[in-house]
Amino acid sequence: MYRIILILGLLGALYFLIRRALRKLKGREKPDGILPGANQMIQDPVCLVFVPKGAAITEDIGGQTYYFCSKACAHKFQQKLAG
Ligand SMILES: [Zn+2]
Prior knowledge:
The protein has two domains: 1-30; 34-83, no CATH class. Helix content is 48%, strand content 19%. The chain has two helices and four strands. The radius of gyration is 17 Å and the shape is flat. The N and C termini lie far apart (50 Å). Residues 44, 46-47, 49, 68-70, 73 line the site of zinc ion.
């Protein structure tokens, strides 16, 4: 029983990896109507996760633009700045 769960988990991970790879290939051919450079990976300063620029949450703080993986991280960052 545990083996089935393990195999299903691996298949699921594989599925996501393949889907991500396919999406990347497609994005290279046709940039999905997003801005050029949208596929550029940028790092979230809060959780240190890399996110595509086009999908990131942007916040202008003190004249500088920061990119986050989620609104929660943007909020956390602002709280951190506020002290
Ligand atoms: Zn984050």
